[in-house]
């Protein structure tokens, strides 16, 4: 998987800052900020996707239908960052982004990374001083966060138009 983003990517500065934090060993910063950035990148991907779907089948939906779906999408984004990001991973699975033979395995790999990231972020946010965490788990979780960020940031919908 590509472990970099091009400068023309709309999230280049944020991802670069988190990559630098990870490389400096500031895993706490990566773990705390990555879920929010993943949701923002997911929203950008969804916006482009919605535009494409609207162009293809937009005439089939009334303005009321479009408004209902727009509101539901907004609600899904606000409900839970974990559920929202997981739904984007499902989109990767459904679009056959990964090869057919490896699709389930790749989905589970990234879903597991997401689960650990959000769980550890919540642990940091609520019980940081109560439960000791192993340095290895924190470092691995930070790396997993970067893997997820690079996966999302290199989505074809975020590539500049030619």
From TrEMBL:
The lineage of its organism: Bacteria, Pseudomonadati, Pseudomonadota, Gammaproteobacteria, Vibrionales. It comes from the Bacteria. It comes from Vibrio vulnificus. This is RiboL-PSP-HEPN domain-containing protein.
